[in-house]
What does this fold into?
Amino acid sequence: DENNPFFIYYAMPTPHWPLEDPPKLYDECNDDAVYGDRKAFCNVLMYGDELIGEIVDTLKSTNKYENTVMIFLSDNGPNPNWKSDIKLPAGYGQTLPLRGAKGSTFEGGIRTPSFIYGGYLEKQNCINNGGEYNDMVHISDWFAIINGMIGNDDYYDIMNDIDGINLWPDICGNNDDSETITQRK
It folds into this structure.
């Protein structure tokens, strides 16, 4: 309800090393081709998917989904599946063709996928809804992006005091090419 907005920050610990079986195991992960840590990884991914599904179902059943924005992102690249000077447990992550992985400052260690989802976006005039945005976004941009996404004009007073850039017109695909990113900042 407009009078009682809320914010949920859900830092899901799965999947994360050390891998442990979640409270529930999934038949999809019992395939003979899935073994060892891969089986545990499969189960924690399935469990995480189920937990996120419960959040979405609750938002829909309480009529809050239409005004909801969910942002999914990661803090680093995957554990490598090779041994190196970085002291990490062997993982199954792959960053090729990028160099580096978790624990490094190379692109494979810091470049991660993210996505924005929710009923609020579905009712916006977003040309790129369901599409891709393949340009760079920095963690400091999220404050400006979220404010741009929800149309919060009050934040413009502080835009010169923050490091983030409102990339929402670019992400959404509604950018007027006559306006550059630096002009929006």
Summary: The helical segments are 37-61, 107-110, 119-122, 142-150, 168-172, 181-184. The CA atoms of residues 26 and 121 lie 32 Å apart.
